[in-house]
Each structure stands twice: as C-alpha cells, then as structure tokens.
C-alpha cells in the first residue's frame, strides 16, 4: 500500500506515528480548539478549521446578515427561493466584508498568541467568536496540518491552497444562509433565543426589540427583528444587559448542580440526535 493516502477533502497526507514534539503541539492546539482529539491527524485539523469557519459565518450572519433578510415571519421555502437574497447588492457587500474580516493569514500567529487573543473579551460576543478570532484559529490549524503533512506535500504551496479552499467554504456558507431553508430556520431560532435571553434578564423592564406597530397590524420581518435587537445590544443599556447575562452564566457555571444538569441535558440531546440518524 502506498505511504500516501488521499483523504476525503482531496489533501494527500502521509500516515505516520506522532513523535513527542507533535503530541505536545497537539495539546497546545486543544487550548484553542477544545473539540480536537488528543492526537489529531492532519485531516482532523483541516476538518476542524473548516468547522471553525462555518461556525464563524453562521455567527456573523446572526450579527450582521440577518438584518438584510426582508422576509415575513411566516416565510416558506418558496418565498425564500423567490427572494434571491444571495444576489442582493447589500448582501454581496456583507459577504465581502465578512471574508475580509476573516483574514485567513498564510503566516499565522503562534498558539500562545492565538490563545491569548481568544481569552480577550473582545474575541467573542453573544453570537460567538468574532471573525478575526475565528480566522486566527482556522489559519493556525491549517498551518499545523501542513506541518504534519510536509513529507507528502510541498509546504507553503499546499497551505495557500488549503486557505483558498477555506475562503471558498466561508463564501459558500454565507450563500447557504439565504438559500437553504434549514440554515435560515436555525438562524431564526437563534434570534428568538437571544430575544428570550434579553427578556428573561430584564423581566418587565425588557425593551420591545420588535418594530411592529402597537396595534398589531404588521408582524416584523426577520430583518426588522434582527436590526432592533442589534441596535439594543449595541446601546449602553444593551451592553449592561449582556454583562448581566454573562455574570449570571458565570455564576451558574460555578454551581456543581448546574454543571451536572448541563452534562445530563447535553448527553440526552446527543443521544436523541444519534437516534434520529
């Protein structure tokens, strides 16, 4: 059998045992990508980089893309297809801005630097990692994958090719957000969950993040709801609300009963998903 193996993404990777130095590097990488296994292969690193980019695009769509979706609350697959949102000039500009912010660097920062970046408060918000932080993680994972695969590839050339593919993945994911009904439904559910978090945190003092008229004659579009919530969260009172929710989450995380309950819930969810498949 050849020492080379063509894996599912078309990247030739040499199969070899990991030396101690590589195992140490893997442990460092798990600090920025906790879902990695103990000794991830080059292919697993590339898969994780792809997953990081897809998550980042979904998060950015929730922040800045959903406000551009002028669909009724009860939209259907047909209305989504007829809207041609992906071809809208404003949406294309949003895609261009997102790809620029992702900034997949061919020469990424070392693990320690990226880990420090992720610990900074500015690296994430209620939606998830910022595009800049996600780009740093993805680029570093690709760099490590190329380092592992160096005997089978040509180093920098492979790295540039992989980064170009990731950028194409990012662009494709943003198109999927407004062409694939399931993607948009999930974004809609995330928006509703965030609205609910705000209302639970403030109770009777919660703002009306809907732009619907008080007489109830017109339900807000998805874009209107997203814009109203974004404007509130970017206000002084909104930032205070986010801080309140963060403190509540931190307090809950230190409660052992909450931690055990959370593990049980996530375990049940995973088992339910497995049964569905």
Order of helices and strands: EEHHHHHHHHHHH
Q: Sheet bearing the most strands, described?
A: 2 strands, antiparallel
Helix amount, in percent? 55-70%
Q: Which regions are unreliable across 5 or more consecutive residues at pLDDT < 50?
A: 1-5, 20-24, 250-277
Strand proportion, as a percent range, falls in under 5%
Let me know the number of strands: 2
Report the total helices.
Answer: 11
Q: Calculate Rg over CA atoms.
A: 21 Å
Find the structural class using helix and strand composition. Answer: mainly alpha
Taken from the alpha-carbon principal axes, the silhouette is globular
The pLDDT mean sits at 76
State the distance separating the first and last CA atoms: 34 Å
What order do the strands of the largest sheet run in, or round the barrel if closed? 1-2
Would you write up a description of this structure?
- It is a single chain.
- The protein is mostly helical.
- It has 11 helices and 2 strands.
- A two-stranded antiparallel sheet has the order 1-2.
- α2 (42-65) packs across α4 (89-102) and α2 packs across α9 (222-233).
- It is globular, with a radius of gyration of 21 Å.
- The model is unreliable at 1-5, 20-24 and 250-277 (pLDDT under 50).
């Amino acid at each position: 059998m050849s020492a080379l193996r063509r894996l599912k993404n078309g990247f030739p990777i040499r199969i070899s045992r990991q030396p101690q130095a590589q195992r140490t590097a893997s442990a460092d990488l798990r600090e920025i990508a906790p879902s990695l296994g103990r000794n991830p292969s080059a292919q697993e690193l590339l898969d994780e980089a792809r997953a990081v980019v897809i998550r980042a695009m979904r998060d950015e769509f929730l922040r800045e893309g959903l406000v551009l979706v002028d669909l009724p609350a009860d939209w259907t697959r047909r209305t989504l297809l007829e809207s041609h949102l992906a071809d809208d000039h404003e949406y294309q500009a949003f895609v261009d801005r997102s790809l620029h912010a992702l900034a997949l660097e061919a020469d990424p920062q070392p693990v320690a630097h990226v880990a420090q970046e992720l610990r900074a408060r500015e690296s994430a918000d209620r939606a998830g990692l910022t595009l800049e932080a996600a780009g740093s993680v993805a680029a570093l994972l690709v760099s490590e994958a190329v380092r592992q695969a160096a005997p089978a590839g040509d180093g920098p050339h492979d790295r540039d090719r992989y980064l170009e593919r990731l950028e194409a993945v990012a662009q494709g994911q943003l198109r999927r957000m407004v062409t694939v009904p399931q993607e948009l439904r999930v974004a809609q559910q995330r928006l509703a969950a965030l609205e609910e978090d705000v209302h639970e945190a403030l109770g009777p003092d919660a703002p009306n993040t809907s732009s619907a008229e008080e007489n109830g004659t017109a339900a807000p579009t998805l874009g209107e709801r997203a814009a109203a919530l974004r404007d509130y969260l970017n206000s002084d009172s909104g930032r205070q609300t986010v801080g309140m929710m963060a403190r509540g989450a931190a307090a809950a995380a230190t409660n052992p009963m909450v931690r055990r309950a959370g593990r049980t819930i996530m375990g049940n969810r995973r088992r339910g998903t497995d049964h569905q498949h």
